[in-house]
Please model this.
Amino acid sequence: MSPAPKRNQSSPARETFYSGPEAPTKPGIYWFRDEASLLERMVEVSLTTGNLTVWWRNQERSVTKLKGHWRGPIPQGQTSDT
Model:
């Protein structure tokens, strides 16, 4: 008889998922809520000339300049908010 599968193991994608106030450290799609808003927005963090940036309020900004709460990166295929 084989042992029962362990149900509390986290998936590899979950282990690399970050949630907190520190800026992302790698490119990807993230949820971001700035300090002045109650709504989260999905943003794409890109590596631009050696810096991680995001298109925010009609301009490209360094992720280190944005203050708020980050969640991600969102695994590909799971970017729908529905």
The two ends are 41 Å apart (CA to CA). Helices lie at 12-15. The longest helix spans residues 12-15. Confidence is low (pLDDT under 50) at residues 8-13.
